[in-house]
Design brief:
Its cofactor is Mn(2+). This protein is an alpha+beta fold. Helices cover 35% and strands 26% of the residues. It has two domains: 254 residues, 3-Layer(aba) Sandwich (Aminopeptidase); 113 residues, 2-Layer Sandwich (Alpha-Beta Plaits), CATH 3.30.70. The chain contains ten helices and 17 strands. The chain has an eight-stranded mixed sheet, sandwiched between helices. Strands 8, 10, 12, 13 and 14 form a five-stranded antiparallel sheet that branches. The protein has a two-stranded antiparallel ribbon with strand order 7-15. 42% of the residues are buried. Bound molecules: the ligand CC(=O)N[C@@H](CCC[C@H](N)C(=O)O)C(=O)O.
């Protein structure tokens, strides 16, 4: 079996959520220890890693980042190498991202280029976010890349396709948690209570009016409530309810406006339903904004020097804390076609493993080009 596919399957079996990636870190370290060590230096950062592959005569440092965490999803693929961790799955392709990173890293250990290449194995991309703190860490500051690259699997594109664009690629995100507290009581005496299930249902519907009535139709935003909890049992009126969701916007300014409207609606719920409401925005990610000159150069390189199909795509409302790295370091992220019938964050996501070699070929070739360029 292709060793990178074996790595992907091993990692697929042990998904761990943000900052719990202990087995993943141990697996990565054990693979790295199996490589010739002359050019490798390794630093741990929380549950992540930074790995430098020293160049022959380094003048600059090229960065390559992969995320390493999984999601709290129960896998339903039926694959023989399904997750062995209950209610955990690599349903966003980070097992692919890591195998590709290890493939690229191994290539440069065996075929060093002039410049240094630093590999960033970053925890907690799905939440609460690892990129911003990792970027600020002394460990990363010491090996700060001059340019940085990353990819994300794209189930909707065929293998052999890369989709990318200059400028905005992924949205600004903010998590959204709203706790409602009213007065519970007997199911038969609603007039003596303030029912938080009713308040929560009303609020979920009102939140969608922020998108349809307050956001410029030519701009774009998303509010998704992915989870509602409330109440205790079928014949007790709920004293408490909690909404958990996420907000996506195409600019930081729109994020401010959307939040302002959410706060006004939540105040209205407090008055209308005589309850208390607390909003917590959880973690926020800065948009992924690809450096224009590097993206042009990358597209040009792919079109002239490789047989991959390059699509210039539109921006997406997905979020990625790699946006924080691109805010400080020039570089880009791109979509890698993996043609799965089920999409990202789905329990049946089954990306095509043939895409791993495509990505390794593209990234080793492009990084060699950049790292040998005068
Ligand atoms: C690529 C991808 O799917 N990223 C996640 C990032 C989640 C950020 C945060 N937990 C949130 O939900 O706002 C995404 O859901 O887009």
């Amino acid at each position: 079996m292709n060793p990178l596919i074996k790595i992907r399957r091993d990692l697929h079996q042990i998904p761990e959520i943000g900052f719990q990636e202990f087995k993943t870190q141990a697996y990565l370290l054990s693979y790295l220890k199996s490589l010739p060590q002359q050019r490798i230096s390794i630093k741990k950062w929380k549950t992540g890693l930074l790995v430098k592959v020293s160049g022959l005569n380094p003048r600059k440092t090229i960065g390559y980042r992969t995320d390493i965490d999984g999601l709290p999803i129960s896998e339903q693929t039926g694959l023989p190498f399904s997750s062995v961790h209950e209610a955990r799955m690599h349903a966003c392709g980070h097992d692919f991202h890591m195998s590709i990173a290890l493939g690229v890293l191994t290539f440069f250990v065996e075929n060093p280029i002039v410049d240094d290449v630093v590999f960033v194995f970053q925890p907690a991309e799905e939440g609460p976010g690892g990129a911003e703190a990792m970027l600020e860490s002394a460990e990363m500051r010491e090996w700060m890349p001059d340019m940085i690259f990353a990819l994300h699997i794209a189930p909707e594109y065929p293998v052999g396709t890369i989709a990318v664009k200059e400028g905005l690629l992924f949205a600004n995100t903010s998590e959204l948690f709203i706790d409602l507290k009213g007065k519970g009581g007997h199911a038969a005496y609603p007039h003596q209570t303030n029912d938080m299930v009713i308040a929560a249902c009303s609020l979920v519907n009102q939140l969608q009016t922020v998108i349809s009535r307050n956001v410029d139709p030519l701009d774009s935003a998303v509010i998704t409530i992915g989870k509602i909890t409330g109440g205790t049992v079928q014949n007790i009126i709920a004293e408490k309810a909690r909404l958990e969701g996420t907000i996506r916007t195409l600019s930081p300014e729109s994020m401010g406006k959307v939040k302002h409207r959410i706060e006004a609606l939540v105040k209205g719920i407090e008055t209308g339903y005589e309850c208390e409401a607390v909003i917590d925005y959880g973690s926020m990610y800065h948009q992924v904004f690809n450096t224009e000159s590097i993206t042009k150069d990358f597209i040009n390189y792919l079109q002239q020097g490789t047989d991959v199909k390059v699509i210039e795509c539109r921006e997406a409302m997905t979020g990625e804390d790699f946006g924080y790295m691109l805010k400080e370091i020039p570089g880009l992220m791109f979509w890698l076609g993996v043609e799965s019938p089920f999409g990202l964050h789905h329990a049946k996501l089954t990306p095509n493993e043939a895409a791993i070699d495509v990505a390794v070929k593209v990234m080793t070739s492009y990084i060699s080009f950049k790292g040998n360029q005068a």
